[in-house]
């Protein structure tokens, strides 16, 4: 699983930087003309920040999976992967479409991200000292 998580980390990192740049340059000009544009742009920025942070967290999960071989690191990786899709993905889609009902998905993604960090802690407990 570590190879998959490292690969996904690279893809997520690339996309986070590209989408962050798109939000700052391309999307900003479009949303500035709309009444709720500043709010929607803040959703995009939040999505991009969490997206990039958890692309790195996926690399951490991959490293832990390689080092410990434990289930907890694999769980962390899948939680981070799904968390980014649901958390950041819902924020991106809400920003572009303005459909706020999609915000109901965002907390589920946040819970997955939290579970991923909890699984990292469990994986660390399984590591040999020294």
Provide key terms for this protein:
84% helix, Four Helix Bundle (Hemerythrin (Met), subunit A), mainly alpha, 130 residues, 4 helices, single chain
Quick summary of this structure?
By secondary structure, the chain is mostly helical.
Overview of the structural elements:
The chain has helices at residues 2-31, 37-68, 71-97, 106-125. The mean pLDDT is 94. Helix 1 runs antiparallel to helix 2 and helix 2 (37-68) packs parallel to helix 4 (106-125). The longest helix has 32 residues, at 37-68. The two termini are 24 Å apart. It is elongated. The protein is mostly helical and 130 residues long. It contains four helices and no strands. The chain has a single domain, classed as Four Helix Bundle (Hemerythrin (Met), subunit A) (Up-down Bundle), CATH 1.20.120. The chain crosses the membrane at residues 47-66, 73-93, 105-128. One of its GO terms (cellular component) is plasma membrane. Belongs to the UPF0382 family. Keywords: Membrane, Transmembrane, Transmembrane helix. It holds the Pfam family DUF423.
- What percent of the residues sit in helical stretches (DSSP H or I)? over 70%
Radius of gyration, taken over Cα atoms and rounded to an integer in Å: 16 Å
Quaternary structure state of the chains depicted: single chain
Shape: elongated
CATH class: Mainly Alpha
Summarize model confidence as the mean pLDDT. 94
CATH third-level topology: Four Helix Bundle (Hemerythrin (Met), subunit A)
Low-confidence region ranges = none
Number of separate strands:
0
Helices and strands, in N-to-C order?
Answer: HHHH
Count of DSSP H/I helices: 4
Largest sheet: none
Strand content: under 5%
CATH architecture tag: Up-down Bundle
Number of domains: 1
Distance between the termini: 24 Å
Structural class: mainly alpha
């Amino acid at each position: 699983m570590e190879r998959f998580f490292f690969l996904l980390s690279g893809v997520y990192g690339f996309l986070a930087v590209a989408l962050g740049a798109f939000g700052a340059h391309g999307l900003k000009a479009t949303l500035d003309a709309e009444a709720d544009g500043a709010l929607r742009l803040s959703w995009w920025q939040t999505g991009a920040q969490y997206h990039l942070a958890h692309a790195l967290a996926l690399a951490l999960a991959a490293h832990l999976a390689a080092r410990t071989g434990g289930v907890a690191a694999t769980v962390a990786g899948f939680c981070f992967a799904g968390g980014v899709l649901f958390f950041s993905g819902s924020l991106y889609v809400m920003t572009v479409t303005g459909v706020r009902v999609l915000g109901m998905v965002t907390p589920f993604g946040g819970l997955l991200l939290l579970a991923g960090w909890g699984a990292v802690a469990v994986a660390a407990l399984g590591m040999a000292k020294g």
